[in-house]
Amino acid sequence: MKVSLYLCPVSPADEALLPLxxxxxxxxxxxxxxxxxxxDARRVFIVAHALLHHALGQLGFMAIKFAxxxxxxxxxxGTSIRFSISHTEGLVAVAIxxxxxxxxxxxxxxxxxxxxxxxxxxxxxxxxxxxxASAEPLERFFQLWTAKEAVMKATGLGFSLPPxxxxxxxxxxxxxxxxxxxxxxxxxxxxxxxxGNHWFALAAPSRVNGVNRIDLCPSDLIxx
Length: 224
Prior knowledge:
The protein is an alpha+beta fold. It folds into two domains: 117 residues, CATH 3.90.470.20; 89 residues, no CATH class. Helix content is 29%, strand content 26%. The protein is built from six helices and eleven strands. The strands form four sheets. The protein has a four-stranded mixed sheet, covered by helices on one side. The chain is globular and about 50 Å long.
């Protein structure tokens, strides 16, 4: 089973394209976009959701309406297609899979004044020790953070799953613990990498046989 990973950069230079790109969105998504006060947040939201519609459109899904799980995760009912969406400053990502749950997270690598406080809240002690011992603690922070959030998304539980209940070890993070109801750690699959100024992670509860990466730009999301 392969995963398709769609990536699209986004910047203030794309602002003029938004009226065209937003025509991909459903009515309720456009309403959500209009509620954003910050231009940057609105722009990233529109491009991320247009990227999702584009990716699903490649599989033949048109005029898409999403259902929500009990934990607020959107999904397509009546199909084996699973997806995950993430966005951060400068980059949006969509992961698509069949018959297997998938989680993706992207984060802009930036200085955080409260990194230690956040780490204490979401990392277990062993993860904090590894981060502090790293030659680049800030990079290790984002590597662990994206890995952790990708797994949380793939479980379907999101942040209703306490982050400290899953943990990673090793230079290339591998899952070493999670609640027993979510399977055994060694059956989970994880890919983690840095792309330019961003970290990304993909996670699935069973092995994936490769990732098909598709790089797009916002102009590719304008309906033809």
